[in-house]
Structure formats: C-alpha cells, structure tokens
C-alpha cells in the first residue's frame, strides 16, 4: 500500500473517529461514528474527503477517488479470506483421507493466489499422498522459489530428486537445508540423505565400469542396490534391463522396461525394445500390442513402424493358419505355416513353432510318414515337447508302429502326468499293441489303418477271390483256406461298419467275446463255422460265383 493510501486512512480516522468493523462488507454497510456526536458535521467532513487531492512527501499532488481505493483494499481482503477458506477446507478433507476433494480446494487456492506458497505446499502434500510424485515436484519447487527458507519443502524436494536419481540436485537441496537453521529432525534427515547421495554416486561410477567391462551380473547386482534408493530413475531401470537381456533373463528385462514406460511418458525406445523382446520370445501378439503403443506416441517413428509391419504380417499368417486348423483344413494350414517360415527365417522360435504345427497337421491329415519325419526333426531340438510327442505317437499308430507309439506316449506322460490326452493315448496305444499280436483286420485285408471304405471292399474282394476254399483241392490247404476266408470276411464286416471299426481302432475286437459286455454286437460272428459262409458270394452281382462242396 502506497503513502497516499495510508494518508487517506489516517485522515478518515482522525476526522471521523471511525472504527473499521469488517473489511469484507460493502461500503454501504460501513458504520462511522463521530467523537463529538455531531452526525451532520461527520457527513460534511466525509463528503469533502470522498473526493480529495493529496500532496505526498515529494510535493506531488494527486487527486484520488477514496471509494475506489478503499474498494480495492476490500476486494483484496476478500480474496485472502477465500484462499484461507480453501486451505482450511482442504486440510480437513486431507485429514479425513478425501484426497480428491482436498486436491480440488488446493487447486482453487493456487488459482486464487498464485503467490501463496502454502497453497502449493498443501497441494504437493496431497499429490504425494496420491502417489503422484511427478506432480508434487513442480509444486515443491514453487514453494522453494516463493519461500527459500521453507526447509520442510526443500527437504521433501531433495528426497524426490534422490528417488529420481538426480543426485547432484538432491545433494544441493540437502546442503541448503543444513544452512537454513533446520529443526533437529530436519538436520538429521538432511545429513543422512547427503551420505546416501555420496554412496549412490560412488556406486553409480562402479556400475558403469562393470557394465562397460561386460560384467553384466555384477552390474545388475549393483543396480539392484541403486534402485532401492533411486526407485524412479528411468536410466537405471533401462540399464538393468540391458544387463538382463545380456544375461538371457528376458522376463526381468521386460518388467524393468515396462516400469520405464510408466516413469517416462514418451518412452518410445522402451516400447520398441519390449516389442522386440516379445518377438524373439515368440509372443507375436504381445509384440504387436507393444509396438502399437510406440506408434501411438510417435506415428512417424521409423524403427517402430518397420517392426510393426513385420510383426503384423507374421501375426496375420499365424492367426490364419490356426483358423484353418480349427476348421480341419490341414493342407491349407500347412501352406500357411510354410509362409510363416519364409516371413521370419531368422528367429529360431518361429521356425520350430511352424514345424511343430505342420507336424500336427500332417498327423491329423493321416500323412503318417511325413508327420513322423517332421515331428522327429522338431524333437531333436525339443525332445520333451509333449504336443509333438503326442502327434508323432498318433502318426506311429497310423503306420502301425505300435511299440514306437507306446514309447512316445510314455515319454510324454513323464513330462505331463496330468494331461488326459496323454493318458488316453497311452492306453489306446497299449491296446493296439496287444491287439496287433492277435488278429489285425487291417493286415488281414492288406490295407492301411486310414483306408477308405472303397479301398477296404476292393481289398476284401481280392483276398476273398484268392482264398476261397473252392480254389484248393488238398484237404489241409482247404482247411487253412477256410480259416483264412473266415478272417477275411470278419475283417470286411468290422472295417465296413463305422461303429465296429471305431471300437477296433480303439484297441477292442468287436468280434471277440471277451470284449463284449452283454450286448449283441456281433460276438457270435467270431465263432462262425465255415458252413455259415457256404454259397456266399463275396462279389455281389459280379461275374464270379463259387460253389463249395464240403466233404
């Protein structure tokens, strides 16, 4: 307030005997009282003073409107009261744990009075309580700028700077606290943190030396210690991530890099690196997600865009191949996975994954020999791959290599005891092995296990023609032919009936009485005598007719 304003107020008090009751009330409500009780005199004096000219100490005369001057003082007084009201309400809400509401009041206080250091300090306190240290730091800096001797704010800022790894700036704050007549506790805290700063600076130098010497294990251990104090230091987290990458601990590297993306808002480099790690691990979907985050920050980022195109293409091919497998279009799926291997020949994971799925498709497509070859190639690199062991076992069953199928399922069970497919597959392979040591209807007709009905009937006719007993004159040969013909007819009966064939494929002989459970699924057929087949024409309306006379 200048000398003119002070002079006006002094005159008001001297001539009118005024007592100011409340500066926040409008001018119409101000109460004036004359010392001598002469209200008229007071009114005259007031009207003369309301617009007056004053001469300051330098002899300069200034005419001012007293009402405007006093009005300005009243507005300022009102603002101060409003700020104090926001601060008081904010404190109460903060104490009650209502952080968002408290923050809104402190925002209002700062807006009303940008030079009120306490408003910034209170707001910084709420930010810290909310875990928003990034927002708290500028407010604490404003406090220190407005009130340099506010040691509590400077100490808190130093602590935040230390956590961010800004060791020199933190050290400067702690030293200034010690020079500002701090409390005993503040002095102790500042000294402790100064020692910590010194330790961190020395350890940081050692860490960089170990990293440059490619001693990544030691460097990572030292970074663990550094990050216990400098928890928000982006550079330290990225350096430790690089150590983990060199040590092959990619999961830990991803964890550190993800933290770095949260600590630094526009960290495109970290998103790019996360994406490339996921890509090398074979997680193409996560790789695609992370590279998209990079492009959200910078659509023109060359590295990210180039990598994005590669991952997107590969991801599309893999997804398409899996859809085809789901639709049982195995030949098309094989073609897609061959494209995958061409798109990415330099990352071993994708080559092996593609071959694993090709092995699966070949097995499902009943291409036994091709499946065995491809699955075996995968198992050379990954001998305990349960999925590939199952697929090769199924291919062995198709090729009637029952011992090999049992062996693969047993190996798979060693590494996946709880897999129901392995348990069921092993039991089936063991039944088929046992069955193969008895009657094998496929072998009787000379067809593969995946033979179509048309092939089975054709083979049956050929065998029936060859082994019809009427073709044999010698008694012993005739008896042998009779049994052979019965087996041929039984094989045709089982393999052309879908339900009976299904049971046989599962390792049960539907014509074996031991496998019947009270049903009439043809158990009596197994003991048919030759007489049951006499006069039987295996060729239907064909041109071949046999008449057998049993002596």
Automatic annotation (TrEMBL):
Protein keywords: Cell junction, Disulfide bond, Endoplasmic reticulum, Membrane, Repeat, Signal, Tight junction, TPR repeat, Transmembrane, Transmembrane helix, Unfolded protein response
Record-level GO BP terms: protein folding in endoplasmic reticulum; response to unfolded protein
Ranges in coiled-coil conformation: none
Subcellular location: Cell junction, Tight junction; Endoplasmic reticulum; Membrane
Domain (J) ranges: 440-508
GO CC annotations on file: bicellular tight junction; endoplasmic reticulum; membrane
Protein name: DnaJ homolog subfamily C member 3
Upper taxonomic lineage: Eukaryota, Metazoa, Chordata, Craniata, Vertebrata
